[in-house]
Design a protein that fits this description.
heterodimer; A: 111 residues; mainly beta; six-stranded mixed sheet; 12 strands; B: 111 residues; seven-stranded mixed sheet
Chain lengths: 111, 111
């Protein structure tokens, strides 16, 4: 069935390190892809999205490219900051109304 | 535009009681989804409503129910509470085929 597989955490990085969080999906068609972020004590916020193959979503220094051939949407950031510490969720939308979320990856950035 | 609002933000109940949570979507959004978030299970989809009709349902027992009103506001109800129902309950609204916007959640503690 349709699903999202997300890299398990927790991930701990030093400030200014490079970040990659892997995400792959299984869907019968070509869904829209999203990354959400959840800061402590808050709900989820949309970080970036891509709606078609080869689209690159970007926001706050984070990027992810919609790779149809590998059904992937990996999240990257070149230099993380302490303020990036949060839980990151990969998700896709297929069929117009059904969202599928990954299990979330906890990121801690230490000074 | 005002964001998604959820009330109450915090709730403490005892086993066997019932609880009703409320969600007001962003103006113009007709789709409302509910999720349960726990440390062990991640983000679990409960159900989704569109124009007062339940369109999708997750794998939860019948104790979990919901409804949507004509102004798109939604409520979810949990009857006969169990300790395992302690969680953060998140509501999200969207326009058809677009990203979901999340509220801050209701933290339910069952004693």
């Amino acid at each position: 069935g349709d699903s999202v597989t997300q890299m398990e955490g927790p991930v701990t990085l030093s400030e200014e390190a490079f970040l990659t969080i892997n995400c792959t999906y299984t869907a019968t068609g070509y869904p829209s892809l999203f990354w959400y972020v959840q800061y402590p004590g808050e709900g989820l916020q949309l970080l970036l999205k891509a709606t078609k193959a080869d689209d690159k979503g970007s926001n706050k220094g984070f990027e992810a490219t919609y790779r149809k051939e590998t059904t992937s949407f990996h999240l990257e950031k070149g230099s993380v900051q302490v303020s990036d510490s949060a839980v990151y969720f990969c998700a896709f939308l297929w069929g117009g109304n059904q969202f599928y979320f990954g299990t979330g990856t906890s990121l801690t950035v230490i000074p | 535009k005002a964001g998604v609002t959820q009330t109450p933000r915090y709730l403490i109940k005892t086993r066997g009681q019932q609880v009703t949570l409320s969600c007001s979507p962003i103006s113009g959004h007709r789709s409302v989804s509910w999720y349960q978030q726990t440390p062990g299970q991640g983000l679990q989809f409960l159900f989704e409503y569109f124009s007062e009709t339940q369109r999708n349902k997750g794998n939860f027992p019948g104790r979990f129910s919901g409804r949507q009103f004509s102004n798109s506001r939604s409520e979810m109800n949990v009857s006969t509470l169990e300790l395992g129902d302690s969680a953060l309950y998140l509501c999200a609204s969207s326009q058809q085929g677009n990203e979901q916007f999340f509220g801050p959640g209701t933290r339910l503690t069952v004693l």
